[in-house]
Design brief:
Layout: E1 8-14, E2 19-36, E3 43-44, E4 57-64, H1 73-83, E5 100-102, H2 117-125, E6 144-145, E7 155-156, E8 159-166, E9 169-176, E10 182-184, E11 190-192, E12 225-232, H3 236-253, E13 254-255, E14 265-274, H4 278-298
Helix pairs in contact: 1-2, 3-4
Length: 312
């Protein structure tokens, strides 16, 4: 069983429309920051998490399908947290802070059945720290990878988790894998991505993964989202640096990454239970991010004509 360092993770999945959302419920006094490398992100409360802003703690992070429409899921998480008296202190009432990021999964359902506030609330109700489902669940329900050569060559992405404990220091990551690029193994070989009908990888004849002259993948319709977490005590500036290091894991596991077509975003959550070297946490973080991304495609089931590794 993966150690989530005190977090609880919950999914709400619309299996008919292949979309959904995934919430990370934080223990009290969780320090958070974010780093965005993709040029086309969809997000809420991202500015709040910048290291120059005074707010230190958040109550949850929401990852969701539905493109910008899916930002409504945060309203459901806010309602759930408010009902439990959880939020940032203000003189009138606690205000839950729920940073949210989206993936574009509208191709799977023609933009129907969009994630909404009720799904965000349901995800919170489903949150657990044991046996969190992976694959075609939550925000990973309708995601795909390997779109750099066009939609006829893609494979299914999904939601993946990874966690490592080193001398009492827990570092883990959850990833929603919706990349234009291929997901690769540690040796650089393709794990899931653009392939021909005979199963051969297209990169074998296109070494630099050159996009078509007129790309069939519109700008901004691909994004890999990661929530990196640790039980270490970190300042907000260190959490921001950790979010930056998370993108090293992106680059190890996805080729190409951070393209014009992606909105890649990494959150970092420091739960503050143990003292730890920042460099140890960051070095482990790179590996668990890459592993979570790979797990997201390994656990993915086929949907229609889109093949998934878990179905093969």
């Amino acid at each position: 069983m993966l150690n989530l360092a005190g977090l609880k993770i919950g999914h709400a999945t619309d299996e008919k429309n292949h979309t959904g959302c995934t919430v990370f419920l934080c223990p009290p006094n969780t320090v958070a920051s974010v780093d965005v490398r993709g040029p086309a992100p969809g997000s809420r409360e991202a500015v709040l998490l910048q290291p120059d802003k005074p707010i230190q703690f958040i109550q949850a992070v929401m990852l969701t399908g539905g493109s910008a429409f899916g930002l409504a899921t945060a309203d459901g998480a806010m309602r759930y947290l408010a009902e439990h008296g959880i939020g940032h202190f203000t003189p009138i009432r606690p205000v839950p802070l729920v940073p949210t990021a989206v993936v574009y999964d509208l191709f799977m359902n023609d933009g129907q059945g969009l994630p909404n506030a009720e799904m965000g609330y349901q995800a919170c109700q489903n949150a657990t720290d044991e046996n969190v489902p992976q694959g075609n669940v939550g925000a990973g329900a309708g995601v795909t990878v390997g779109k750099w050569a066009g939609f006829q060559t893609i494979m299914k992405g999904g939601f993946g988790l990874s966690s490592v404990e080193v001398d009492g220091v827990v570092v883990g990551a959850g990833a929603v894998v919706n990349a234009v690029g291929d997901v690769v193994n540690q040796d650089g070989s393709v794990l899931a991505g653009a392939r021909k009908a005979d199963g051969r990888w297209l990169v074998e004849e296109n070494l630099y993964r050159k996009f078509p002259q007129l790309p069939q993948t519109p700008v901004g319709t691909n994004t890999t989202l990661v929530v990196l977490f640790t039980n270490a005590k970190l300042s907000k500036i260190e959490a921001h640096r950790l979010a930056q290091r998370a993108h090293d894991g992106f680059a190890i596991a996805i080729r190409p990454v951070h393209t014009t077509h992606d909105g890649d975003t990494a959150y970092a959550l420091a739960i503050g239970q143990v003292e730890a070297s920042f460099d140890l946490v960051a070095n482990v973080a790179v590996e668990v991010v890459a592993d979570a991304i790979r797990s997201g495609v390994r656990q993915a089931q086929s949907v229609g004509m889109v093949p998934g590794l878990a179905s093969e």
